[in-house]
Amino acid sequence: MNGSITERQGRAMLKLxxxxxxxxLNQIAADRLNVKETEALVQSILAPAEADEPAEExxxxxxxxxxxxxxxxxxxxxxxxxxxxNTIKKSLKMVQQAGMDAxxxxxxxxxxxxxxxxxxxxxQAEVTKKAAKAQPKATKAAKD
Length: 144
What we know:
2 domains, mainly alpha, elongated, single chain, 7 helices
């Protein structure tokens, strides 16, 4: 029976004890259950009271799927602007270490702290690099 079930089917079966797993495995093979059917079977074994309720008690209308829980947004623990400013500075430093010629300046005006980050476009970045390479040569020639 090696390789006859999917990883998801096997993961669903992990919730069961050894005897139940063997029963479910035999049923998967006999009835050629897909993943969804296997998960429903495992759920019915784990919660038989809910699965055995007659359709009239559950209502004739199909049950709406419960929406998946959204991942929680991480909320700031501290509203201190210094944390935000330091995070931006560290991010800019990482960009600069990666070789990009980016610069930043800060301004305090009208009750706000403004951070201006300048990243040259590709053409300007190439001109700046060429000028930086040529400058040491010009300085060396002037010394001679």
